[in-house]
Amino acid sequence: MILTGVLRHYATVLLATTPKKLELPAQREQRSLLRGINLRSNASAISPSAFAARKNHMISAYKEGSFLKDPQNRGKPAPNPMTDPAAMEGMMGMMKGNMAMMVPQTLIMTWINAFFAGFVIMKLPFPLTLRFKSMLQSGVATRDLDVRWVSSLSWYFLNLFGLQSVFIFILGNENAANQMAQQMSQMNPGAGVNMFQPGQDPDKVFQSEAENLEVLEHEYILKGVEERLLCSI
């Protein structure tokens, strides 16, 4: 299992495509949206005058489309993500990651089911309740077998999800052998890379962010701090 995880990690690294560097207008478009989100999240840390100045500037820029990468395409329908080379490249990268994760596991599962189905391979040295029977004795349909016996199929799943600390120790935190990290990256493949989903209209996102800023009620965290400090003494 450890060797399979190490091989899967290096196979994923070899199959991974180098992300393309974003052009300056695209970076400006994404960072401008992130700036508005950060302003809403940390509004209480700045004074009312500073917040009002930033808020008015961001709202007017969002509504005028000053941060758009392609201002001439404003108001036009979003392009089909299937015809976008960047979106297609991201989908291909996700498919490669799925293949590097699923193919080895499928082969090992098939091998275990073919040669070791119905076998018990070890007995735990401590007592357990009956609730653990279905988890530790997969593929062994017996009622009278002691719960402490572990089947080959259950031992495979325990190793699959229990060796994450070993993979982190050998390959580091950002390793492709980590099952939980792989599942999270598949659920949200564009996190931290692209603020806009494929086929999403940036202008509509900016308009929505402008509305969020307009309805935000600002409350300065240091308002009346002198009185609060004196009252606490």
Tell me the layout of helices and strands.
Elements: H1 2-15, H2 24-41, H3 48-64, H4 85-115, E1 120-123, H5 133-136, E2 149-151, H6 152-162, H7 164-171, H8 179-187, H9 202-214, H10 225-232
Antiparallel strand pairs: 1-2
What does this structure look like?
- The protein is mostly helical and 233 residues long.
- The chain contains ten helices and two strands.
- The chain has a two-stranded antiparallel ribbon with strand order 1-2.
- Helix 2 (24-41) runs parallel beside helix 9 (202-214).
- It starts with a helix and ends with a helix.
- Mean pLDDT is 80; it is low at 186-192.
Q: Quick recap of the structure?
A:
The chain has a two-stranded antiparallel sheet with strand order 1-2. Helix content is 57%, strand content 3%.
Give the biggest beta sheet.
2 strands, antiparallel
SSE string: HHHHEHEHHHHH
User: What is the helix fraction of residues, given as a range?
Assistant: 55-70%
Q: Report the C-alpha radius of gyration, rounded.
A: 27 Å
Look at the structure and give the mean pLDDT: 80
- % residues in beta strands: under 5%
How many helices?
10
Approximate shape: flat
Structural class, please? mainly alpha
Low-confidence stretches: 186-192
Distance between the termini: 62 Å
**What is the number of strand segments?**
2
Provide the spatial order of strands within the biggest beta sheet: 1-2
